[in-house]
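Ticket #4471: structure output looks truncated?

Reporter: J.K.
Steps to reproduce: submitted the chain below (348 residues) through the standard prediction queue, then opened the result file.
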Amino acid sequence: MRSWPQFKALWTHRYRKYSHIGRKYLLFFRDYLYFSLLKLRLGRRKLVAIVLSEQMGDIIACEPVSREVRRRHPDDHIVWVVRKSFQDLVRHNPHLDSFTVEYCVSHRIKLLASKVFDQVYNLHLSHRNCTYCGDDHVNPRAEALDLTYANYYFHGDLLSVFSRAAGLPALDDQPRVYIPDEARQRVDGLQLPEEAIVVHCQSSYAPRDWQVAHWNRLINWMLATYPYPIIEVGLQSNLSVSHPRYHNLCGQLSILETADVIRRARLYIGIDSGPAHFANALGAPGIILLGRTAAFDTYMPYSGRYKHGQGVTILNHLGHPCSELPYEWVERAVAEQLNKAFAHEPKV
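Returned output as attached by the reporter:
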C-alpha cells in the first residue's frame, strides 16, 4: 500500500502528464486549422517551415538558414517553428513571414506528420523527445547522414551540421541578430557605462562552466588593472564581486536586450553558451572558454567570424573540462586583448 506522499506524487505526475497531452492535442488542432486556412489564402504560394525550436545558441547560429531558405523560396510563406522562450530570436527576422510556437516535441511531430506544410527544413536531430509524450522525433535526413547528438560536433560547427540535417548544403555564413529599436531604447534607458567588458559566467549545462573562484579572481583583477566597467549578463549570477564598476544585470534583461548589451561591448568573455553566439553574430571581440563536453574534445560551435579566428581568442585545454582551464591562460588572453588597439569590425 502506498503512503500518502507516494500517492500524492503519483497523481500529481499523472495530472501533469494527461493535462499536458490534452493541451498538446488542442494546440495541434488549433494550429492545423490556422495553417490550413492560411494555405487557402496563399493560393499557389507554398507554405514552408523551418524547424529549430531550441536551444538559444543553436537558433542564433542557424540564422543563415532563413536567408538560404528565402533564396530558394523568394515568393513563398516561410514560418519558423520555435519554443516560446526563444520566439524573440526569430520574431524580427526580415527573411521570415511568421513564426509559430512549439508546445512540445510531440506537438511538432504531429504538425509535421499532418503534411500541412508544403516544404519542411527540419534542423533537429533525432530522438530528443518530450518528457510526457511517447512520440519519438526522427529526422530521416539526419539519420541517413549519421548525424546524432552523440557525434554531431565530429561533423562540423552547429550551422554546418544542422543545415545538412535539413537537406541543405553545409552552410558557412556569418549569423545575424535582428534587434528592434525598442530593445535598443530600453538598453539606452539603463544608462550603462560605455566601453564595458561583458562577461557571461554560468550556462544551462554545468559541464561547460568555468570555476566560480576563477571568475571572481579574473573580474577583480580586471577591475584593479584596467579602467573599464564590467557587466555580467545571464539568467543568474553566482559571483561574489562587489565594486562600483561591476554591474550585475543577470535576470534583468530580455533575450534581445542581452544581445544589445553584448553588441556594445569593448570585449566579451564567456563560456560556450547562447550569449557567446550573440557576440559572434554582433561583431563583439571575444574570449571564449571551451572544454571537453561529452565525447567532444576539439569542437567548433561557431560559423562566420569566430570560426575563422576573426576577433576572437578561443581557449581549450584539450582533454579537460572547462572547469580545469588554467586561470593564467584566461588572464593572459584578456591582457593581450586589452593591451592592444582593437580593430573593430562594423557592428550590426
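Triage note (M.O.): checked the attachment and the full C-alpha cell line is present. The first strand starts at residue 47 and ends at 51.
Status: closed, working as intended.
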